[in-house]
Write a structure and sequence with these properties.
Length: about 675
């Protein structure tokens, strides 16, 4: 049913296997909550709800650990050997089950983990599992506007009904919080980084306060994106210069006002001097000046400022790739303690494949937060079946080599490489008012995978895929295997029929939908497609070696060595770094032109295979969810043909070479 989509991975349907269900039902008799805090309240409520559904019986909550065996005991234990306060330890003690943690927040996460254990059909007999998050701030960034629209949102309108708030609390806010808590997300920025100053007004702050009240018992702190020009816009000041004492005072006062309403407010997220947003550079000041002013205002309350590094200049002869590094690296060490710099995974902009941003590893004295995009702005909106865990993992596992082999992006971001005191990972949310939250059901997997990886980046894409599939679609072993495979291959398929071999930024103008490789004029030169693919009579690709923009020099020598030679550069990155002749023989044995065609055609064909594989799981999946995914796959097939034909025919105008024989047939 449609409700199946609404319930995400927290379905708690009756376990079909009767023997298994009886085993759990006998083993689990009661919940012992111990002390009561709002988060323990959420935890026990969830355990009751979950077990009621999964086992089909009511499991009573009691305050003290007396009575018969089979108790689930929530236990705060400061002596528990866990890496931090948010971790949990699940274990069996005689015939009882202990959910143990240093804090009530750990118990909340432990309770969801306990439920997941049962949802995924694992045995309780030898239960002994510990886990602590590797990243402190695990956040969603919503690009939601005051009027309820979402920038780059493809699943309906904003979840936040600003006009009804603060008086009316949509129950959906609680389900949002439950879903996030279940995967360890503990922070949310509720508004767009292209920020309206209005969020800081007495009109909107009570609305934000009301949301914070719903999220608090689920361990989620609320943050706001701010508009740097707010002192002028709202305060009536003559300037928003961060070094002006009146401006500084305005932020101090505003911050106090916010904390009065929301004592556990998380802090500010800032997009400044980027794509037309105001910022300190409007007054000849630096990003550090701007960030430090806000950091100072937030410090007395324990808040943080998260300053984005997504900046670039409209220089037709420059290389946008290099911009963030050039602006931010020189500022390393100049930021206050409670400031973080948030860097997108790649140097350009959330493309289907990017090399990791060279800023990772380049700012040892400044905590860098990693920003992924969960919403599929460049990955086919909500018509394309693309599981993003492999993309996230590719970045996390990339080796920066800045402190020798093994200096992965994950180790930069989790703080172990440079000893960052603060750590954070953010995902640009894909949620909206659609009944199933994310438009495409597979979008749910991406929300889920982001949360799980922010908690533990060592988890594999495959493990997450299996876990999610079991909780969302089916426990049928064959179907789980088929869906897992579909998920794991889906991103590479998408890359192949849109931007193979390291092509990037050739999508439709503005909307970022469909192909437009011929785009040559735009409001900015670095928004066109020809700027990036540089196709000409000789070949295609962006030369970022010494003979070109030399962006490669921003990486450690070992990374440069990996990518700087066109003979040995792995094919997925080839056109990111090299302008390659059409008739150049590649390591695959094909010429560049043939390889390009091969990938476009095989990529589009892979969608047909996805449709066939999806058809096989029909008996094991809810009929409405099945039909919805099938319909979207059919749309994806149409879009894949569009991408393939647009790109192959356009690039052929330069290569003047024939489409390889195997592909010269009707579809
Ligand atoms: O990917 C681009 C988007 C913009 C977005 C910007 C950013 C919020 O096209 O819509 O603005 O990135 O990350 O700031």
């Amino acid at each position: 049913s449609a409700d199946d989509g609404y319930r995400l991975w927290l379905k708690y349907d009756l376990i079909k296997n009767e023997a298994q269900r009886k085993q759990y039902a006998t083993a689990l008799q009661s919940i012992v909550s111990g002390s009561s805090t709002p988060m323990i309240g959420s935890a026990t409520k969830e355990l009751q709800l979950g077990l009621q559904g999964l086992l089909g019986k009511q499991v009573q909550v009691q305050i003290t650990a007396s009575g018969k065996a089979g108790k689930i005991i929530l236990k705060i234990d400061p002596a528990e050997k866990l890496a931090n306060d948010e971790g949990y330890h699940l274990y069996k003690a005689n015939s009882d089950f202990i959910i143990s943690a240093k804090t009530d927040k750990g118990l909340l996460y432990g309770s969801f983990a306990f439920l997941r254990h049962i949802q995924t059909g694992q045995s309780l007999a030898q239960l002994d599992a510990s886990s602590s998050p590797k990243i402190q701030l695990r956040m969603l960034n919503h690009w939601d506007n005051t009027n309820g629209s979402i920038e780059r949102g493809y699943a309906g309108a904003s979840l936040w009904k600003w006009y009804e708030l603060p008086e009316n609390l949509d129950p959906r806010y609680t389900d949002y919080a439950r879903a996030n808590a279940s995967i360890g997300i503990n922070g949310t920025v509720v508004n767009n980084v292209n920020a309206s100053a209005r969020f800081l007004t007495p009109e909107y702050l009570p609305k934000v306060q009301a949301l914070a009240g719903v999220f608090r018992p689920y361990g989620i702190k609320i943050f706001l994106s701010i508009n740097s020009a707010a002192p002028k816009i709202l305060g009536g000041l003559a300037t928003s210069d961060p070094l002006d004492p009146k401006v500084r005072q305005w932020w101090v006062d505003k911050t106090k006002e916010i904390y009065k309403a929301i004592p556990d407010f998380g802090g500010f997220l800032v997009k400044a001097n980027s794509e037309g947003e105001p910022g300190p550079q409007d007054y000849g000041r630096s990003h550090a000046d701007g960030a430090n002013m806000l950091a100072e205002a937030l410090a007395p309350f324990g808040g943080v400022v998260i300053w984005r590094a997504f900046v670039y200049k409209a220089d037709p002869n420059g290389d946008r790739f290099k911009a963030a590094y050039e602006e931010f690296k020189p500022l390393d060490g100049t930021f206050k303690e409670n400031a973080l710099i948030q860097v997108k995974n790649g140097p350009i902009d959330f493309q289907p494949r990017e090399p990791f941003s060279p800023l990772f590893g380049a700012m040892p004295k400044t905590p860098l937060a990693l920003e992924f995009q969960i919403t599929q702005e460049y990955l086919g909106f909500s018509t394309n079946f693309v599981y993003l865990a492999p993309l996230f993992k590719e970045c996390l596992e990339s080796d920066t080599y800045v402190k020798g082999k093994g200096s992965t992006v994950a180790k930069v971001v989790d703080g172990t490489l440079h000893g960052y005191e603060k750590t954070a990972m953010a995902g640009v949310a894909n949620t909206g008012s659609d009944r199933n939250w994310t438009g495409h059901m597979i979008g749910q997997a991406n929300w889920y995978a982001f949360g799980r990886l922010a908690w533990d980046h060592m988890l594999t894409s495959e493990a997450i895929a299996q876990e999610w599939t079991r909780m969302t679609f089916t426990q049928d072993e064959k179907a789980v295997a088929i869906i897992t495979d579909l998920l794991l291959n889906s991103r590479e398929n998408y890359v192949n029929f849109t931007t193979p071999l390291g092509l990037h930024h050739i999508m439709g103008e503005g909307l970022h939908f469909g192909p437009q490789p011929w785009l040559a004029r735009s409001a900015r030169p670095d928004w066109t497609a020809v700027y990036y693919h540089r196709a000409d009579a000789n070949g295609i690709g962006f030369d970022r070696t010494k003979t070109g923009s030399n962006a490669l020099a921003q990486y450690a020598p070992e990374v440069q060595a990996q990518w700087s030679d066109p003979e040995t550069c792995p094919l997925p990155y080839l056109l990111w770094f090299h302008h390659v002749a059409w008739d150049k023989k590649l390591s695959s044995g094909r010429t560049l032109w043939d390889e390009l065609c091969h990938r476009y055609y095989e990529g589009a064909e892979s969608v047909v295979q996805m449709q066939k594989d999806w058809a096989k799981v029909e008996p094991a999946v809810d009929p409405e969810l099945f039909a919805d995914v099938a319909g979207r796959l059919a749309a994806q097939r149409r879009e894949a043909l569009w991408w393939r034909d647009a790109c192959v025919l356009y690039f052929q105008e330069f290569s003047k070479m024939p489409i390889p024989a195997p592909y010269q047939k009707p579809d």
